[in-house]
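Practice record 12: protein with magnesium ion.
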Amino acid sequence: MNVDVILGLQWGDEGKGKIVDVFTPHYDIIARFQGGPNAGHTIEFDGKKFVLHTIPSGILHKSTMNVIGNGVIIDPFIFMREVENLRLSGFNPEDNLLISKRAHLILPTHRLLDAVYESAKGKAKIGSTLKGIGPTYSDKMGRNGLRTGDIPGADFSSKYKLLKEDHLKIIHFYGSDVSELRIDGCTFDEYEAGWFDALEKMNKFHFIDSEQFLNKSLDEGKTVLAEGAQGALLDVDFGSYPFVTSSNTITAGVCSGLGIPPRRIGTVYGIFKAYCTRVGSGPFPTELFDETGEILRKNGHEYGSTTGRPRRCGWLDLPTLKYSILLNGVDRLIMMKGDVMDDFETISVCTHYTKDGRILDAFPFDLSDEKIKPEYEELPGWNSPLKDITTPEALPTAFADYIDYIEKATGVPVDMVSVGPDRNQTLER
Ligand code: GDP
Ligand code: IMO
Ligand code: MG
């Protein structure tokens, strides 16, 4: 068997959580391969809403096993808060969740470092979620990090102290006073105490060599779905650097983040919104600063699932979508949130970029280049509600034409459309 993949093709928040949940009944195992609690994956059904940050979005199906892969980074404090929330709703995540021993830990001082680096950048700040992502992945690559497999070791405490001391020196160098810094409203000491408490509670979970488990499961004929976090334009290599996250969000990340050989990659499903959003700083060619952008934000409830920040909104951007399809080897597209555009007489799509009046053939190295201009085509809107439509035949013609237009432009079939946040508001074509 091969590993199928679901990932985001824009700047994150495409609706990956919803679709992973919808797909879960077809898979034995759901595995997250990168990112950390910077992610916020929303699942809605029966009037209930769950936002997952570290735990894979298959967790709400009790018969499916979920795996947090080696490429993921974990903040025990945030992880245990997620676990408690699930328990309150009658789920027992320790029954169907396994954690890689090779997943790195986000230390409380990683979160302080994130804040210190961001504030030192001033206007050039990334707009990080301040969950410690950049500093933790830096320590992983710098070979200084701590992994979940280190927790039971007799020297864990001394390793922790050493790394913490290093971090405190950097924080001091930047002129920050730890006693004045806050993490999610807590003092450092409070957060650290909660972190250690959570670390203890994490003991109940099974820590495994997930690369062995996954490859063995595939050999036994089990089906595996890899769940991406963030989106292709936030990939550390190919995204709008430096306004990116610190992991490989693309299909290649599945191999390194789960220990899956490339030949075992199966169908790649690419998720995109019918428009675009971005949260945090960085270039966004089709961003709308007018009333239309406001309508998208309002109708789409475009506020970050992790930080609550308003998301920047704009028209669908085909050059970025095509670039993401190329990087990920997308086989099938899934279009989300068409219903958010219900009220428009006309809609616009960015078909290509120009620079100094010339069409750009290749995706630009520097998307921040102010000379790059998005060029648009205007299409008829459907101007009717989609949210209660349950069959593809009942979709308005202008909406079906929009999908055909995207399929033609990208050369990839749109297999599924989502017309609302609920599990049931999903149509196969
Ligand atoms: P993820 O990070 O890719 O999992 O996406 P998020 O959960 O951060 O953001 C997607 C938001 O859109 C969530 O609030 C979802 O409940 C919601 N959503 C998902 N699909 C649809 C849809 O088709 N229509 C509408 N209106 N909302 C949707
Ligand atoms: P999901 O999985 C949207 C953005 C942040 C910031 C940049 C770097 O829910 O789609 P980081 O905290 O990683 O150092 O922030 O990346 N970002 C996301 N934007 N959705 C996400 O995840 C994101 N994770 C990080 O806003 O601009
Ligand atoms: Mg999200």
